[in-house]
Amino acid sequence: MNPSCPSHTSLRDYYRRHARIYDLTRWAFLFGRTRLIQRAAYRAPRPACILEIGCGTGRNLVDLAKRFPQAHITGLDLSSDMLERARCKVEGFGSRMVLLQRAYDAPIATGDKFDIIFLSYSLSMINPGFDEVLRICQADLSPTGIVAVVDFHDSRWAWFRRWMGVNHVRMEGHLLVELNKHFTGEVCRIQTAYGHLWRYLLFIGRCRQS
Fold it and tell me: What's the pTM value of the predicted model, to 2 decimals?
């Protein structure tokens, strides 16, 4: 995952255009985020360290910080424009909140590993490279840690998949296949949206034992 690769440049350009309207528009599409945090809290009730990959404007970071007041939280994103908005939201949480602008192309834990790695509608936009992200997650998770994912799953409508592709989203059911290769699922639910226009995935799992 070279941060200067064409796909990363394209994503940065995309979010440079969309950062200002992201929170105003994405609530109508990005379902299941709050539910995933609630379910993660049941399986990891007192995490010391949390990582969100693709934290965007920081909406989930705020919810995570409130849900887990004892946790140190790291938010990572490629887009400086998105992180600029995230900083405004999380500044009240002080030193327990860290924001990083970079690609997730290598483990980032320097001391304690992460008890929760949260991915909210980010994996489906990492093409190519989503499978490598999941391998790196395994290296960054603590021995009892969980990965928590909410993302687009699939759509029966080819025109809708093409439209989502214009917005850098791949939704072909491919994420669940790869998640099951790397993690033992404890939560795996596929939900429908807008009368079966598309389906989205909720997944929580732990590293598979070798």
Answer: 0.90
Would you tell me how many other CB atoms lie within 10 Å of the CB of residue 101?
Answer: 15
Facing residues of 73 across strands? 50, 97
Weakest mean pLDDT among 6-20, 111-125, 129-143, 185-199: 6-20
Q: What is the pLDDT of residues 32-60, one digit of tens each?
A: 999 999 999 999 999 999 999 999 999 99
Determine what percent of the chain is predicted with pLDDT higher than 70. Answer: 87
CATH architecture of 6-207: 3-Layer(aba) Sandwich (3.40)
Q: What is the domain partition of the chain in residue ranges?
A: 6-207
Q: What is the 3-state secondary structure (H, E, C) of the chain?
A: CCCCCHHHHHHHHHHHHHHHHHHHHHHHCCCCHHHHHHHHHHHCCCCCEEEEECCCCCHHHHHHHHHCCCCEEEEEECCHHHHHHHHHHHHHHHHHEEEEECCCCCCCCCCCCEEEEEEECCHHHCCCCHHHHHHHHHHHEEEEEEEEEEEEEECCCHHHHHHHHHCCCCCECHHHHHHHHHEEEEEEEEEEECCCCEEEEEEEEEECCC
